[in-house]
Amino acid sequence: MNRLDKHLSELIAPFHLTCEVNPSITGIATDSREVTKGCLFICVRGYTVDGHQYAEEAVANGAVAILAEEPIDGVEVPVVLLQDTKHAAGKVADLFYDHPSHKLKVYGITGTNGKTTTTKLTYDLFRAAGQKAGMISTIGAMIDGEMIDTPNTTPEAIILHRLLYQMVEQGVTDCVLEVSSHALMEGRVEGVKFHAAAFTNLTHDHLDYHASMEEYAQAKALLFKQVATSGGQAVILNEADPKSRVMEKAAEGVPVIWYATKALSEALITVEWKEETVSVRIDGTVTEVPVFLLGDFNAANLAAAIGLMQAGNVNMYQLIRHIPELRLPKGRLEQIPFEGCEVYIDYAHTPDGLEKCLKALSVPGEPLYMVLSAAGERDRSKRAVMGRIAGQYCEGIIVTVHDPRREQPQQIIKELLVEIPPRKIITCHESRKEALQIAAKVALTGKRMVIVGKGHERFEQIGTEHVPFDEVKILTDELIRLSGQETAM
Questions:
Q1: Which candidate, 196, 237, 194, 188, places its Cα nearest to that of 217?
Q2: pTM listed for this prediction
Q3: What 3-state class would DSSP assign to 370?
Q4: φ, ψ (nearest 5 deg) of residue 309
Q5: Which one-letter DSSP state was computed for residue 486?
Q6: Would you give the distance in Å from CA 143 to the centre of its chain?
């Protein structure tokens, strides 16, 4: 990458501030451990850590200036005071990295469920169309096929703009960005110019963070307001979700591309799922193509992706021939390849996501079994609802936890059990690993099994630690061990 140099005065100019000492800035960081010589350190208050407490450490590591919300004593570098450093970080990063989102097209995707899948489908379709594309999502960042790990669904602002800058340097023309409600509320996409944005749906989730579903919807709407204020070209909205009207209102003045999954819809784009094929209608022209995506909800994700492609001026009719090549992301209805049993892993962790997953896997006359879990220190109100849904679709349920954090696993399990019929409970286990081992044993008896909650993730959050936890490996190792025992017998 090219060397980046800015003066402090340039980076604070948007806030109508000046500085007496004007050092050259060669990097920016919100983590004192990432500070190098010449950095601007931005003090940000997080949930558990306050960056102001690490200002001296940042200076010791080479910081030549500080942005803060309160005076910093004991440092011999200029300190510039701002009211909200968290939201300012994105604007500063945008300036420092030479406005990267103005040099490529950025497509934002938000909603409760389907964000990651829609992001991946859109990215794959751009590449199939011959575009040099980038992607930033829950499963990591991709730059024209190269994977880069990221810490959050939407990285914090400095990392995000750095990735966009890297994409520009590598010739990327279109970047697809998964945008969470947390990211919108915390200013992680501040400074990003969006070419277009899509909305998947809004269902029960994150009510530990948002006070109500209406507040949750308004958080999502911030993306569409940003599309409008940054000169975006289109918003892609789900005809079936009433909260799409909230997004439409927020994007006032921006053209709307509506999508649906019903053939009789008047939406510009419809994708109707027919198990082994989808019927794709774009502006009145209908084409039926083979597909390897399970479920009506993935038809909606594909329709949203096609809408984003339309906003990107891709030739739709050439694009359709690439639909059979599309695959779901890791951890989304992912089947574990093991002869003699049928086991799936899915990221479902909301009531709506769980129901869609189980509905997609339901086959008349073939009972479904599952491992059900919930995370600690997260929206408790959805646990009983998820238990009820599991009981409706599954014949047998193994109840456990994932990412308990500092909450007692017994409490999580207790709240999941409230509405599950007792006859359907196989066992309850505080240890997720032991629950998976039991699931492997059940699957080897010929039972169809789905394990939800973690999906693609390869760690567990226990207490305040991130502990390595590879669900696919644990399951595969146990299936091999058990099948080997059976052979020996």
A1: 237
A2: 0.85
A3: strand
A4: -65, -40
A5: H
A6: 17
